[in-house]
Write a structure and sequence with these properties.
219 residues, 5-stranded parallel sheet, alpha/beta, 10 helices, globular
Length: 219
């Protein structure tokens, strides 16, 4: 069932990646950290100052969930509500389509911040299978923040965000998923020397000052 749904999602946008990659290889920065670590906030500041396009795996999934006629919508909604990770085939195809569409509109927009991905080993294997040789992962930007700070930020955000997963029950599940599934991916990239760690418990401006140093160096 999942493969049929994924095929339907993938068919919505013509496959352009091979033609796009003949011009430029997409340059990718994975942005990871716990829920509430400030990934989205900092990505917004990065794209204001650097030539990157922000792709949030979570936002893409929520948009697909809300899209009228989406066959994946109910499936995605159930996974998000339970704090679980959506099947990799769906997430990869949404990311791939978003990158293709961005580069189709402007071939110079080949640098991407991919926020909230890869979240587990399955995500990473799926990325390597589909995107190996088609995208260059420059580094992982890791926003390190305590669980308590993350939860408090999300609860505060939930007062106005309208997100169904910004409640304590879902947050506790999301934190456990992050610790069990995403932290090992960060550790794997650390062994490859690809992690750039930022203390995300500080103020937005203080965090961005540290982020800016990284991007000024890495380009």
């Amino acid at each position: 069932m999942i493969s049929r749904l994924v095929n339907n999602v993938a068919q919505r946008v013509p496959s352009l990646l091979s033609r796009v990659c003949a011009m430029k290889t997409p340059q990718v920065v994975f942005v990871l950290g716990g829920p509430g670590a400030g990934k989205g906030t900092q990505c917004a500041k990065i794209i204001e100052n650097y030539n990157y396009t922000h792709l949030s795996a979570g936002d893409l999934l929520r948009a697909e969930r809300a899209r009228e006629g989406s066959e994946c919508g109910v499936l995605i909604a159930n996974f998000i509500k339970e704090g679980k990770i959506v099947p990799v085939e769906i997430t990869i195809n949404l990311l791939k389509m978003a990158m293709e569409e961005t580069m189709r509109k402007d071939a110079q927009k080949f640098r991407f911040l991919i926020d909230g991905f890869p979240r587990n080993e399955d995500n990473l294997q799926g990325w390597n299978k589909v995107m190996d040789g088609r995208a260059d992962v420059k580094f992982v930007l890791f926003f390190d923040c305590s669980n308590a700070v993350c939860i408090n930020r999300c609860l505060e955000r939930g007062k106005s965000s309208g997100r169904t997963d910004d409640n304590r029950e879902s947050l506790e599940k999301r934190i456990q998923t992050y610790l069990q599934s995403t932290r090992p991916i960060i550790q794997l990239y650390e062994k490859q020397g690809k992690v750039r760690c930022v203390d995300a418990a500080r103020s937005v401006d203080e965090v961005f000052a540290a982020v800016k140093l990284i991007f000024d160096k890495e380009g």
